[in-house]
Each structure stands twice: as C-alpha cells, then as structure tokens.
Amino acid sequence: MKKTIIFLLMIIISAGLSVANARVRVTTTTTDLASLVEIIGGDLVDVTSLSRPLQDAHYLDATPGMVVRISRSDMFVENGFELEMGWIPEVLRETRNRRVRRGGVGHVDASSGIQAIQVPERIHRDMGDVHPSGNPHYTLEPVTSQQAARNIANGLIRVDGDNAEIYRRNLEQYIEDSNRIVSKWQEKFEPWKGAGIIIYHKHFDYMLLKLGLNIVDAIEPLPGLAPSAGHVAGLISGYNPETVRFVMMEPWHDQRVGKQVANGIGVPLVVGCPTVGSCDGADCILSLFETNAQKLFDALTK
Ligand SMILES: [Zn+2]
Fold it and tell me: Is residue 267 part of a domain?
C-alpha cells in the first residue's frame, strides 16, 4: 500500500514537473511587458519581470541575479526606446545564453515597429535626458501596445512554434479587447477634449493623448532632469484653472513638488498608477489603463 502511494506520488510529481518544464520561460524588464506576455501566452508561459511594480525602469542597476534569470530563460522581452539603457546592455553582455541576446531567436524588442512620440530634435543626453529615442512609455496605452503584443506573439511562435495558433488567437483577442476598452474611454472623455494638463515625468503621455487631453507643460524641464525652484514658480505663474485642469504625476517622484504646482495653480493633483501591479486593480495592461483613466475622470468630474 505504502509503495503504491509513493509510486502514485512520483507519477503526480513527475507529471507536474513535465508540465512546468513544458512552459516557455520568459523574463521581461517590466511588469507591463510581463502582463502582455501573460495575455498572449496564457498557461503556456512562465513569466517573471526584472523590475518590481514601483521601481522606475529608467534607473535600475544590473545585478548578478538578473543575469542568472535571463540565462535560464527561453525568451527575453525588453521595452526598447532606451528605457533600460542604464542596465540591460550590461545584463545581456554577461549572459551566456545567446538565444536571448539581441539578434537571438528568443530576444524580443517590444518597441519594434512602434512610432515613438516626442522624438527630440536635439538630444540632451549630457543634461540627463532619459528619452533620447522619444517617449518609451507606450505600455500605458493598450492600442499602441498592440504592436508590442504582436512582437511578443512572434517571439513566442519562434521559440514554441507548436502552439503558434494559440498565440495568434490570444493576440487577436487582445487587439479586440484593447480597441473596445480604449474606445469606451475616448467616448467618456469626449466632453474634455483639449483640456490642459501638466505632467511631472512624461510617463502617461501616450494615454493622455489617446484620451484627447492637451499636455501643456511638464514639471521636469527634460525627462529625468529635476525641476529648479524657478521652473516650478514659472509653472505656477504661467497657468490657471482655465488653461490647466489638473496635474498628473508618478508616485516615485517628489509629491511635494506636484502638490506645490497643483495647489499653486488651484487644480487637483492626480497620482497615477505607473505600472501593472502598482495599484489595487491595476493587475494587467488593460486594467492599468482603466484605473488611470478612471482617476483622471474622477478629477475632471468632481
Ligand atoms: Zn521616462
């Protein structure tokens, strides 16, 4: 009897292991990309993100743990547009897994084929501009992210061609869902088309533009450059509640400055959810968008 139980347990464990082994192991740089991989890969993938939800992916440090994680992966997805320029090149250099390096079959640059907004005419890298290739935060807007989802689907098909049909079907479903959700919110924002907004970092811009809002200024003079007292004072004296309806910022920047600008102008401050997993309810790329859109809607209607 005991032997039978042990034998049965072994079968169960080995069956479980074979299922686990059959999954495609994917590592992404951000939780937003991990969400897209889950949407396209479903139960066929096992995905982990190198950054946590409340970490700003502009400023991570390369660690040996990241190298190990990527080395053990079948596929690696990076955001691109130089979002991870401070840490991913080093991690990829250190990994022995050629398949996930740039040019390898398991490497995905999710930005491939996306038209970046706000591509600077002159690059101010020496002044700390962290958006030299244009705005890299396209994952905040699900329709722009359809191309990233397509790149991820193509990557999964390359490393796991047997399940190509499932990946294609999930991609189609994502395109349908994201079109529906974004259209719904565009309709809701119709009465506020062109409403002015000041942002802190250019993090939510893809979403704000899709909703028809008008980004009139930024608390950071350049992406990544902290504001001077003079710049903050200029924003407060330069705008009023007619020209700016609210200020929006990320939780990882100095909220005292955001409050100072919002209070100075006399408008609400909206602290957005910057990534999947950073707020209750923002547990996938679509609910991240909906959570942020709802926060803006509440600020405009109260
Ligand atoms: Zn940025």
Answer: yes
Helix, strand, coil percent values for the chain (each to nearest 5): 50, 10, 40
C-beta of residue 263 within 8 angstroms of C-beta of residue 158: no
State the distance from the centre of ligand 1 to the C-alpha of 118, rounded, in angstroms.
Answer: 11
Centre of ligand 1 from the C-alpha of residue 261, in Å: 20
Q: Where are the alpha helices (DSSP H) in 42-163?
A: 64-71, 88-94, 145-159
**Among candidate residues 116, 151, 180, the one where a domain is terminated:** 180
Same-domain status, 90 and 127 = yes
Q: Ligand 1 centroid vs 129 CA: distance in angstroms?
A: 9
Half-sphere exposure of 174 (CA within 13 A, CB side): 31
| Domain boundary residue, one of 156, 180, 204 | 180
Q: How far, in Å, from the CA of 293 to the mean position of ligand 1?
A: 19
Domains: count for the chain: 2
Q: How far apart are CA 151 and CA 108, in angstroms?
A: 7
Span 243-289, pLDDT tens digits: 999 999 999 999 999 999 999 999 999 999 999 999 999 999 999 99
Centre of ligand 1 from the C-alpha of residue 56, in Å: 8
Q: Does any domain span residue 12?
A: no
Position 171 pLDDT exceeds 90: yes
56 and 166 in a single domain? The answer is yes
Q: Cα(102) to centroid of ligand 1, in Å?
A: 22
Residue 121 domain flag: yes
Domain extent for 128? 20-180
Backbone φ, ψ for residue 154 (5° rounding): -65, -40
